[in-house]
Hints:
Blueprint: E1 5-7, H1 12-16, H2 41-51, H3 66-69, H4 77-82, E2 94-100, H5 105-122, E3 126-128, E4 142-144, E5 151-154, H6 155-163, E6 171-178, E7 181-183, E8 193-196, E9 201-205, H7 215-237, H8 256-261, H9 268-278, H10 282-295, H11 299-311, H12 325-328
Parallel strand pairs: 2-3, 2-6, 5-7, 6-9
Antiparallel strand pairs: 1-8, 4-5, 8-9
Helix pairs in contact: 2-9, 5-7, 5-10, 10-11
Amino acid sequence: MNRGRLLIVATAAALAAGVGLLAARGRAPEPRPGDDGRITAAALARVMEKIEPLQTKLGKPKPGEWLAQHKEPGQTFEQYRRSRPLVPDRTRRTICVQPLGEFTKTQRKVIDQTADVIGRYYNLPVRTLQPLPLSLVPAKARRVHPTWGDKQVLTTHVLDELLARRLPKDAFAYIAFTTSDLWPGRGWNFVFGQASLRGRVGVWSMYRYGDPHKGAAACRLCLKRTIQTATHELGHMFSMYHCTAYECNMCGSNSLPESDRRPMTACPECLAKICWATQTDPVKRYRRLHAFYRANGFKEAAGRYARLLKALGAKPAPATRSRPAEAALERT
């Protein structure tokens, strides 16, 4: 594996086995900018203190789980700030979403809703580009899995040949989504995706997230997995490490079942990183995310965000009429 790239999987051993890879009374404490106009770490520390009682600390990892196989140091908010992380600037502050290949109306709706959440999660403009045809991937960057027969696309070719050469000038991150299965090269069965941290490009696949056309529950699960992958891996592109302190969206996962158990919220440390890097008011961020999950039928996630808002002395934004995601998605 090249340095500066992140495989959205766990270990080669896991792949060989067929496994791919955040209550006070009164007003909410609003972060105040410092002398340079930026939200201060001290203000975010007060927010962290108020939401910490709502968090679940990670216990001892079970055999086969991510932290049982990866001895990671974790990363506090203070360590993150001192690491000179990659953050948006005046020129590069858009997240560009690149559909790659063909999508049904339902699959495209999943991508569009994921792009919506990305904008709420990171408080940055998100632009979805016109799809690129899969025919741009040559035969040398494709294969049929020798055992399973799945048609696969080589991630390194997508990163280096397709995305790097088309990186928009205003893009903080340029991420491709595809319905094709992916593999990163010799010795691997598949990956959910791969990102080039220095190059600010990444590619992720919906291939193993379940069929969103098989009813409401399947649709919601596919959307949940797509959102979690996108927000988690973009966190790495903001120089965030895996979380080792709490049950958090930034925790590493060795399998889909382990990933499915993770919350869609960021823990206090990771929330502070996001808000500091993107200059986001935590209450406004929580309200935007709560509104999406409430409107689209994600009761657990909406409940988590409502409790976080309450801990900060705030209330959710008023509800607007919207159909749940699975009702809005069209079957094909």
